[in-house]
Specification:
- By secondary structure, this protein is of the alpha/beta class.
- It has one domain: Alpha-Beta Barrel (TIM Barrel), CATH 3.20.20.
- It is built from twelve helices and twelve strands.
- The strands form four sheets. It has a six-stranded parallel beta sheet with strand order 5-6-7-10-11-12. A two-stranded antiparallel ribbon has the order 1-4. A two-stranded antiparallel sheet has the order 2-3.
- Helix 11 links the parallel strand 11 and strand 12.
- Helix 5 packs across helix 7, helix 9 runs parallel beside helix 10 and helix 11 crosses helix 12.
- The longest helix is centred in the last third of the chain and has 24 residues.
- It comes from Adineta steineri.
- This is 5-methyltetrahydropteroyltriglutamate--homocysteine methyltransferase.
- InterPro entries: UROD/MetE-like_sf.
Amino acid sequence: MISATKPWITIPTELIGSLPRTTTLLEGQQSYKAGHISINQLDVLQDKAVRQTLIELEKTGPGQLTDGEQAKPSFLIYPIAPLYPYAYSFDDIVDCFTITFSDGHQRTLPRLIKAPFRYGKYAVDYLRKAQQYTRRQIKQAVISPSALSNVYPQATISGYSREQFLDDLINEVEKDIRLCLEAGVDKIQMDFTEARLSLKIDPSGELLDKFIQLNNRVLDRFNNNPEYLNKLGVHICPGGDRDSHHSLNVDYTLVLPRVFNLHATNFYLSLASERDRTRSLAVIRTYIQPHQRVFIGVINPTDARVETAEQVCDRILEAVRFIPIEQLGTTDDCGYAPFADDETTTRAKCYDKIRARVDGTRMAERILNTRK
């Protein structure tokens, strides 16, 4: 009797999204803010940065690409930034949702001042632009409704209740995702970096549960389409920006059990920056569901050191002790420059880290296949 050959083990690997903006684009952004160039001139610089980024990413290995979020002002406020200052205000800073990072710097969301809530920009515009410059599959990141729910002021807007706002928010996030899916995106990644932060704000977990319920209202609108569901994922991290974090000091094992209550297929979970990866992996093993895949972070973008392929491989071999190989993937802990002005890491170093992830993942594949 001839035994059937076991299929070759493959481990998918994906980029989270952002890369530092090109030097030319950074200079162009400053010139635009100073009124020295027009929005059309800035658009040209953004297009060139997207094209350059795709060309450079293609050299890091096979697989899908992102546009490096070159044209986004940030992963967080891209849908509403075009509406400043018409519909949003930073004037009452006390009433604005502010995130403080471990090095002391802050990022602030504006407050909605004019109803109804609407997007001024959809992620599909970035996707279509990138699709013009490559034949490879494109992944697109979108912001979660839970993040944008924080733009509603503490005091209600006259004639526009928070419930009405949330209904409009859900509709807009659904549209943001659906347009990308209809345009042929390879994967959609919902950035939910406030998951861990929520336990810092509210250790009871009530806020995190509300955030998850809100995000599920969007995800559930795709549950009748298995093809779309397989393309949807959620990203969780401690918020990397300027080589610091906003919630790395929050116990990850308190977050992870609730995370798997999200009605998503793919989970992009930071792990390389954790001091005790084994403890987190044990929690993932307990709560992961059979239809879900976990892309574990094997690269720490906030670490100045470039990981080796061997280090990445070791982290994967550690993970397969806890996660079934058919449910495992690899990624980076976070984007490399989620905000447009983040210049803490060079683009060259980012590409070195990405190559280490790709090469280390292939190395782990070879080892695992020899063990069959």
